[in-house]
Helix-turn-helix domain-containing protein (Nocardiopsis exhalans), 209 residues
Amino acid sequence: MIRAYKFLLRLTKRQQASLTQMLRDHCSLYNGALQERRDAYAHPSKTKIRYGDQSAQLKEIRSFDPERQGRWSFSSQQATLRRLDKAFQAFFRRVKSGHKPGYPRFRGVGRFDTVVFPKDGDGCRWDSTPQDAVTRVRFQGVGHVRVHRHRPVKGRVKTVSVKREGGRWFVVVACDQVPAQPLEPTGRVTGIDMRCPEVSGQGPNTMVP
């Protein structure tokens, strides 16, 4: 069973500034990759650029801009490029099916609100200070952030996301292998009343199997 848990983050001013910059830099990466694809497609050769091509450029980008792009998790940047790739896959799928395609758009800083870490322990760490009574999550480039954990997290943590909603920040923890919790039997029987007056010979209150 898979389940996602969403918790409010208790940030210091410095941590909030760092997370804001993280979103800004990931947004810049997303828009830059989108522009590269637009330019390639507008070229007479109609060159196609895919996720693998752009992911291979990350090392050079991070080396060229160590204070910004080089500061954040490599895996989270790959997740941002996959996000763009999925947008293009959906675009071409709609084109092929004859629907109105809707070309992928550039994202404003205010509309880019989520950064995904595909694997716990790679650029982030859930419950990073297990020896403390307070739960924290660590993000590369930000540090250990306090979490308002109002319920226990069960299963194996797979992905961790940081999300901004208005003026508040949340961490979303996706887990698999969450044990199912079946309800206790009540002894009652549940049925469905399918009323179908259009059926010949059936009244409006007739039960139809």
In short: The CA atoms of residues 15 and 143 lie 8 Å apart. Strands lie at 3-10, 114-117, 124-126, 136-139, 143-148, 156-165, 168-176.
